[in-house]
Design brief:
8 helices; single chain; eight-stranded mixed sheet; 11 strands
Length: 279
């Protein structure tokens, strides 16, 4: 239809890439939910299609837009942490058997692409990488502990970042009743603790421009519907501005590929029992 300029893809994860490619081949721009692809090969095919057809494709990365994340990014850019040494991402969520039974694609490799990390955890991994930078190596263990699904409901990974810092990623849908997402970043000059979209601790030599110490309000650890749509609105506004005025996207397809590298590296490390090194 010539009346349609942009498609917003909220289809099952395994359909994101083929639907996005179909859209750009028909001259449409796209807003796609995460994960934009289930494999790096899929991601590269989509990137090539976007380049070929000169389409504007935005990948939803709503956590990056949270004021607390923006404030922590500012502190990192100003060097307030000193040398980064340690970081931890904890995503101990819970999803019921009814959640997985609610749609046939959930919990399958073919259409979900993974479990606690690829579906629920990809947003946390995206913002973790956004704050800490590229990952150099991964050593991980992935398990399915309580759910009758193909993919993982529990995962732990030790990572080394390219900046030399060491980190830990934990993700699950098996931790009843679920805990808020938590990110800790430490350096030799200071540290922070982020819980969901709230800064719990700010031990840095520069002042924080936001309230510190207030607990998280929107906690989707056990209830997906608790996720706010405020940042999605920012993505949609950004898409309109990108089309009309050439404004850079908040996150494009190359940015959408970055958390996939980490998640698929975790899967590969657990499968092979080897440390995986990322380019």
């Amino acid at each position: 239809s010539p009346d349609i300029d942009v498609l917003c893809l909220c289809t099952p994860s395994g359909l994101h890439t083929p639907h996005a490619i179909l859209a750009v081949e028909h001259g449409k721009h796209v807003v796609v939910e995460k994960p934009m692809s289930l494999t790096l090969q899929e991601a590269d095919i989509l990137i090539d299609a976007v380049d070929k057809h000169q389409a504007i494709v935005s990948v939803i990365s709503q956590i990056r837009l949270a004021p607390a994340v923006v404030e922590i990014r500012r502190a990192l850019d100003e060097g307030a942490f000193g040398k980064l040494t340690m970081a931890e991402l904890s995503m101990k969520y819970y999803r019921s058997a009814e959640y997985y039974a609610s749609a046939g694609w959930r919990g399958t490799w073919a259409q979900d692409g993974g479990g606690a990390l690829m579906n629920q955890g990809i947003h946390g991994i995206d913002v973790f990488r956004h704050l800490m930078g590229p990952v150099k190596s991964i050593s991980a263990q992935v398990r399915t502990l309580i759910h009758d699904i193909e993919v993982e409901d529990s995962a732990v990974a030790a990572v080394e970042f390219s900046n030399g810092a060491l980190g830990v990623i934990t993700g699950s849908t098996s931790s009843y009743p679920g805990c808020p997402r938590r990110i800790e970043i430490c350096g030799d000059q200071g540290s922070i603790v982020l819980e969901e979209d709230s800064i719990l601790k700010w031990n840095l030599p520069i002042a924080c421009k936001l309230p510190v110490g207030k607990g998280a309000e929107n906690v989707p650890s056990s209830t997906p519907g608790a996720i706010s749509n405020e940042a999605h609105v920012q993505h949609f506004v950004n898409m309109v501005e990108a089309i009309n005025y050439g404004t850079p996207l908040l996150n494009d397809v190359r940015g959408g590929r970055l958390p996939l590298e980490i998640i698929l590296g975790i899967y590969e490390s657990s499968k092979t029992g080897q440390t995986i090194f990322l380019d």
